[in-house]
Design a protein that fits this description.
- This is ApeA N-terminal domain-containing protein.
- The longest helix is centred in the middle third of the chain and has 26 residues.
- This protein has a six-stranded antiparallel barrel with strand order 1-3-4-7-6-5. A two-stranded antiparallel ribbon has the order 9-10.
- The chain contains twelve helices and 15 strands.
- It is of the alpha+beta class and 480 residues long.
- It folds into three domains: 94 residues, Thrombin, subunit H (Beta Barrel); 176 residues, no CATH class; 125 residues, no CATH class.
- The C terminus is likely disordered.
């Protein structure tokens, strides 16, 4: 645990009531901030105790304004009135010194300059080109970095007020750190990304980054305000928000989307995701809650047991299927034209069942009811799964029908995911790949996929989703 900030004056706030405090210490351990404060009296504690989140506002010894949000009271010493808080949200620092640059046109809206990401693994897609010149000797040299050192892409979004929807950003390495920075500095004019609008799309941004990363991505800090600065130690800004999150360790990443495989793949994937697919992701995330599915995929990837991984994913499949069923995204609620079903199929089926009526009238009534509902899409879990996977352009072949039917039934009702260990592992890989394809197909992503289990032939994939997707077919693992 290290002491990172000392607060020389400020106040605690809870339920809009404030208490002045003369002193506080802020510590950092394993990514989590904690605060120690000596309360002037025990009245504030007795009133609110452990029941609410607190906030702290103050001035640090280095003359920064500081705001600590999401403070959870974890310890109280009645003898000294010392309280210890754990920060579950963020600590925001604002510079307040005489050396800050003068801003001629003080903005009412602050720009986002950098976002620091933790646990994001990627091969950079682009090379830095440097043009050197010396007018005295009249020569120019052109230098290209020997290895890719950043990824640059454009980003099209929706639903931002008084802002453009076309932005640029770079993915760069944070100096002296394993973390990655998203650099928004190149945006200008109407398409400059402001911090308030960044917050509106932040959840979708982090969600899709976690998905293509094959593992959870967390925001460690954000640099915003009226200006930024750069030194050998990295970047700084007028305002900085540090998030209190436990450091992620020993994390494995699923490489289904190959941003960490080769620089050319990474470049192509980022352009496809952020230029062509992000608006589709925004729309469908609101409707189908892709966030929950992505969380389930990442949790399953980290789980030790194969059974646990499978149960997490089969639950996620049923959850998103139920969400789809309640939305009626497809206005046609029938599997085939209902007039054809009623006049040509249903009458023949009921006629074939007439003999049952003589033998067992009760059974005949039940079977007639089943036949009457055969054409309804949302008729039971199995049919709902079929309808949803068909919507998501998943090939409905024997492999997929086995998942919907026998494999799902054995897992849910008998706790079995396969007859052998190898069979169980294949069933898990198939379910994992299908769920990732559900998202990719739905947002119309047509770039690299690193399949671990090819559950359909190339022809079946193309028939279900005929656009030019890179299906990456290793011949040795194509399933019949």
């Amino acid at each position: 645990m290290s002491l990172v900030y000392t607060i020389k004056s400020g106040y605690l706030e809870c339920q809009e009531e404030k208490l002045n405090i003369p002193f506080a210490l802020i510590f950092l351990e394993n990514g989590i901030y904690s605060l120690e404060i000596l309360l002037p009296s025990n009245d504030f504690y007795n009133k609110y105790k452990f029941n609410y989140y607190y906030k702290l506002y103050g001035i640090t010894e280095k003359n920064y304004f500081i705001e600590c949000s999401g403070l959870q009271l974890t310890s109280y010493d009645s003898g000294t009135n010392k309280v210890i808080f754990r920060c579950d949200n963020y600590i925001k620092l604002t510079k307040n010194d005489e050396n800050e640059p003068e801003i001629e046109d003080k903005k009412t809206r602050e720009q986002i300059f950098f976002v620091e990401l933790e646990n994001f693994k990627t091969q950079f897609g682009n090379f830095t080109h440097i043009n050197r010149s010396n007018n005295l000797e009249d020569y120019n040299t052109f230098f290209t970095s020997p290895i890719p050192d950043h990824t640059e892409t454009v980003w099209i979004t929706d639903d931002l007020e008084n802002n453009g929807n076309y932005f640029k950003f770079k993915i760069i390495q944070k100096p002296n750190s394993e973390n990655i920075l998203i650099d928004f500095r190149s945006n200008e004019g109407y398409c400059k990304l402001y911090y308030d609008n960044y917050l509106k799309i932040k959840k979708d941004l982090i969600s899709i980054l976690s998905f293509i990363n094959g593992g959870i991505v967390i925001v460690r800090s954000e640099l915003t305000g009226d200006y930024y600065s750069q030194s050998n130690n990295g970047f700084d800004s007028h305002k900085k928000i540090n998030y209190s999150r436990e450091i992620i360790k020993d994390y494995s990443h699923n490489d289904y989307i190959g941003i960490n495989s080769h620089h050319s793949q990474s470049d192509s994937i980022f352009r496809e995701i952020f230029f062509n697919c992000f608006r589709n992701f925004q729309k469908l995330n609101k409707l189908l809650d892709f966030d929950s599915l992505i969380i389930s995929l990442n949790i399953a990837s980290q789980s030790k047991g194969l059974d646990e991984r499978y149960f997490i994913l089969i639950t996620a499949l049923e959850r998103i299927t139920k969400k789809y069923s309640t939305l009626n995204i497809d206005d046609n609620s029938f599997l085939i034209d209902n007039e054809i079903f009623e006049n040509e199929i249903k009458v023949n089926l009921i006629e074939a069942l007439e003999k049952v009526k003589v033998i067992n009238p009760n059974s005949w009534g039940i079977m007639k009811s089943v036949v009457s509902n055969l054409n309804n899409k949302n008729n039971g879990t199995k049919k709902s799964l079929y309808t949803f996977l068909n919507y998501a352009k998943i090939p409905i072949n024997e492999n997929v029908l086995n998942l919907i039917g026998a494999e799902r039934n054995d897992a849910v009702h008998e706790g079995k995911i396969g007859k052998t260990l190898e069979d169980s592992y294949e069933n898990y890989l198939k379910l994992d790949n299908i769920l990732r394809d559900v998202i990719l197909n739905s947002i119309e992503y047509f770039s690299y996929r690193n399949r671990k289990y090819v559950y359909a032939t190339k022809e079946e994939f193309i028939e279900a989703n005929p656009k030019p997707t890179n299906y990456n077919f290793p011949p040795a693992v194509i399933m019949p």
